[in-house]
Amino acid sequence: MKRDKTVINHNGAEKLMDRLSGKHFPSMAGFVLLLLLYIAAYVFTARSSRAQGVLMLFGHPTPIASFTGVFSTLGNFCIIFLVVFYGKPGFFTAVGLLLVQLSLLLVQIIKEHNMAATPGMFSALFTILVTLLFYNNYLKTQKYQDRLRKQAITDRLTGLPNRFACSELINGLVERRERFAVVSIDLNHFKTINNTMGRATGNKVLAEIARRWAQAVNTGASGTRDFIACQGGVEFALVIQGYQTDAEIRRSIQYYNAALEQKLTLDDCDYYITARYGYAEYPIDADNGDTLLSYAFAAMYEAKRTAAQICRFSPDMLQTEQTLEIERKIRQALDNNTLCFYLQPQFDILHRLRGFEALARLKDEDGSFISPAQFIPVAEKAGLIDSVDRRVFRDSALFLGELIRRTGADLTLSVNVSARHLMRNDFLDEVRDIVNTCGFPVKDLEIEITESVMIDSAEEALNCINAIKQMGAKIALDDFGTGYSSLSYLNAFPADILKVDKSFIDKMNTSDSSKQYVAAIISIGHIMNFDVISEGVEEPEQLDTLRSIGCDYIQGYIWGRPLPPEEAEALVLRSVAA
Ligand code: C2E
Ligand code: CA
Ligand code: CA
């Protein structure tokens, strides 16, 4: 409990805690009004108790003295309201007033022998008693409510303000347009402590770290006004105010880091804890609390990724954060076997089914698909593309191999292989293994390679491609025309099929020169003994043109979108029956 105070009492955080814990007082005007009302009631009570006169009320003569009780009750109500609405100050004011009232009544009885004041005296004594009871009850409720509210804004494990308290503070600062920086802190390798020493020890270590940071906040030695909160788990947030330059923010962070990195001894074991820090600044980086926190988090992630200790947010990190999220999803899909494949049909120019291209599909948490254009480059960068290719290759070969055996259909399976994957020493073994275990006829297998492979490392690629061909599989040159296609390497390239990229098909009917360009690719392909397949055919006009310039195969939405395996199976069954 002591620990809470050290954190909370610093840097106006006390005000925040008061606001969060509901300690707001009704207006001063109400207080004064009750006070005046009480004094008026008291004066009228005293006057009316002595008055001899008679008042006409609703046509009846009424003695003024009979109003004494009404005024006295009104005064008592004022007293009770003071206690109920104004707590401690209300209570002391009420008791003070009652004691004055009591003294005046005693003077009247003793000095003036006014025995009519006796009931008033008893009434005042009784009101003091009631006031005491109300106040006692008020204190009990207040204590209970304080405890509940404090629990709601305090992290149980560390005793620091929690995520909610932190957001409230940040939102308050934003509302008042006060400049501040928010720092996201993540402890390095804390899992290891939990795993090796047990969760109980991990919790003790966390509590000790929190104690150190709370103390650091309280001493104010960082040179800035700070507030620290536990955001849950091993994630902390530091809010820094009162700095002038970026260097001062970093100096403050270093101050907390120094407190953290001091050797921590617990049950005779020494622990050396380190952390990474990312920060964002209001109003420079974002103009609202939530965005600012997420930016600080992105910067912290960047610090982790680049092994830097402190990172300031910059917009290009958002891309990194998104990329990391996609990478996580790919890993998860590979682990859980949820990465799947679709099959896009390829047809000859007479609309007879030639085969399918297997395309990777990654499902997002909401059931929608993440586009391969988005996740394939991430998989390449993260070194996961081999696993993705392998999974799609194996699963689609297993599926189509079984379908070919069952139906006797003559179908080609095209699989995409990234350059990186192709260059692996064990790539050929992998193809052999998949073909054997899946029982897929190797002559029906087509490996799609983009021309960049040839440009980057022509000799190695050529050896590999030759070996694939010796096995009996075919090679397709994917996205043809988008790279630096050169006739000289095309001549040396033992491909079987050229895949004309969609971008050329799109432009083909917009100008005569584009159409001539596609026609030239097809001619060159044929001269070199390649078959040509056009990708991304969507319009009947494109189809007509491709027919007229001698294209061999078509792959595009016009005749078939990528299909889930069951729909591809139905298509095969229909084509076999036809
Ligand atoms: P790609 O190999 O050129 O595959 C063809 C892409 O064009 C597919 O997109 C396909 O859905 C799309 N497409 C086909 N016909 C049409 C059409 O008529 N209109 C339009 N708008 N699009 C059409 P997808 O499935 O999004 O794949 C994108 C790229 O991702 C692929 O381009 C390929 O480079 C890569 N990819 C997909 N699966 C794998 C995989 O298993 N391994 C590797 N290494 N790359 C893959
Ligand atoms: Ca492809
Ligand atoms: Ca392509």
Features of the shown structure:
single chain; 578 residues; alpha/beta; Alpha-Beta Plaits; TIM Barrel; eight-stranded mixed beta barrel; five-stranded mixed beta sheet; 22 helices; 17% strand; disordered N terminus; binds ligand C2E; binds calcium ion
What is this structure's SSE topology?
Blueprint (H helix, E strand, L loop, with lengths): L1 H7 L4 H8 L7 H23 L3 E4 L2 E4 L4 H43 L7 H36 L9 H13 L4 E8 L2 H8 L1 H21 L5 E8 L2 E7 L4 H16 L2 E3 L2 E3 L3 E8 L6 H18 L3 E3 L3 H21 L3 E9 L4 E11 L5 E2 L1 H10 L3 H23 L4 E5 L2 H4 L4 H12 L6 E6 L1 H5 L1 H14 L2 E7 L6 H6 L4 E4 L1 H7 L3 H16 L3 E5 L4 H9 L4 E3 L9 H13 L1
Parallel strand pairs: 8-9, 11-13, 13-14, 14-15, 15-16, 16-17, 17-18
Antiparallel strand pairs: 1-2, 3-5, 3-8, 4-5, 6-7, 10-11, 10-18, 11-12
Number of strands: 18
CA-CA gap between termini: 81 Å
What is the molecular shape? elongated
Low-confidence stretches: 1-13
Given the helix and strand composition, which structural class is it? alpha/beta
CATH topology of the largest domain: TIM Barrel
The largest β sheet comes out as:
8 strands, mixed, barrel
Q: Quick check: average pLDDT?
A: 87
SS strand fraction: 15-25%
What CATH architecture of the largest domain do you see? Alpha-Beta Barrel
Helical element count? 22
Small-molecule components bound: ligand C2E, calcium ion
Q: Give the CATH superfamily of the largest domain.
A: EAL domain
Give an overview of the whole structure:
This protein has 578 residues and is an alpha/beta fold. It folds into three domains: 23-153, no CATH class; 163-318, Reverse transcriptase/Diguanylate cyclase domain (Alpha-Beta Plaits), CATH 3.30.70; 334-577, TIM Barrel (Alpha-Beta Barrel), CATH 3.20.20.450. Helices cover 58% and strands 17% of the residues. It is built from 22 helices and 18 strands. It has helices spanning 2-8, 13-20, 28-50, 68-110, 118-153, 163-175, 190-197, 199-219, 246-261, 289-306, 316-336, 372-381, 385-407, 419-422, 427-438, 452-456, 458-471, 487-492, 502-508, 512-527, 540-548, 565-577; strands spanning 54-57, 60-63, 180-187, 225-232, 235-241, 264-266, 269-271, 275-282, 310-312, 340-348, 353-363, 369-370, 412-416, 445-450, 474-480, 497-500, 531-535, 553-555. The strands form four sheets. Strands 10-11-13-14-15-16-17-18 form an eight-stranded mixed beta barrel, surrounded by six helices. It has a five-stranded mixed sheet with strand order 4-5-3-8-9, with helices on both faces. Strand 8 (275-282), helix 10 and strand 9 form a beta-alpha-beta unit. The longest helix is centred in the N-terminal third of the chain and has 43 residues, at 68-110. The chain is elongated, with a radius of gyration of 41 Å. The protein starts with a helix and ends with a helix. 36% of the residues are buried. Mean pLDDT is 87; it is low at 1-13. The protein binds ligand C2E and calcium ion (2 copies).
